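Pipeline run #58 for the internal structure catalog. This entry was flagged by the ingest filter as a single-chain record with no existing model, so it goes straight to prediction. Upstream metadata was stripped on purpose; only the residue string is passed forward. Reviewer on rotation: M.T. Logging verbosity set to normal.
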Amino acid sequence: MPFSTPPASALTTALPARSHSRMTLIVARANAAGLRIIADTRASFVSREATRHPVAVRPGKPLEGVLKSVLLNHSQCVAFAGDVAVAQAAIEGIVADGTHLLLDDDAVLARLLGAHVESHGATDFILGSVLGPAKLYEVKDGAVERGVRATWLGSRDAFAEYQRHYLTSPHAPAAARSDPACDELARMTNAMHQLIEGEQTFDDVGDFLISVASRPHGLVYLPYAITSFRPCATDSADLTALQMGDAATGAYSYAVLCPTSSGVPLVAVYFAHGGFGAVFAPFQAREPVLFDAKTAESFVAQVERSTQQELCGTVMLSDRAIVLRRHEPAA
């Protein structure tokens, strides 16, 4: 569903017209519990016109980022690392005539491999599929690798740090701990959150963490909220309401909101302290679309009106949490 006419307060950021982002971090796993693909959104651009000179990588700003794991439909997701323009053109080509709703994995892989080879390996891809049992495919080094259980693309250093977090990450809650497959997926998410939000930083990996997960009704993005409270101290045992504070005190928060329906390539991010939000919807606009919204309710209303999609997730405010709808139940 394309965007309707944006409100007057909506703005559009612009990515460099010809650039690519080689570094990122995407991790993926398929097991008996389903499929999980987790990616950052940071885009570190390298000017093609400057390739004859020493290359300077400029870490992009959060709202100049890219949705690197794109749902094609209810059952297939393409993730990429490398030349953004090549990846976007390949994915747009897959969905151009609407046949992506009927394509089998081999048809999608043929198109991804073609883009990979024609670009001389400038972009690598992962295809996650739940057409039948959850499965992963790699498209890199000039070939398709099938039957992959776990894989990654992007920064080797960031992946090493992710692995360290994964191996030391707390296990899933007790209810899921008895299921090793569920535990693997939960530890992936924990490790990526620790990498993105931790003290060890990588110039070319960061910003928002976008998770794709399989559910009984199809592939969905997972919502989450990040909140940083201002430091406070109490001198008694009395319960004290925590105050989030404001930007002047170093507080910040943002919420990643996602469609309730499966198979929709759209993620919305709301910044409570900034009074604005952004929508990443690559089939409608290659760049994030910004909305002025002083309240979370206003942001959600604008996005839902413009995209015709209901959002789910939680927005943390200074005095309360706004809980939106949850993902729709299985049919």
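catalog note: The helical segments are 84-95, 105-118, 156-168, 174-177, 180-197, 296-307.
catalog note: The chain has a mean pLDDT of 80.
status: ready for reviewer M.T.
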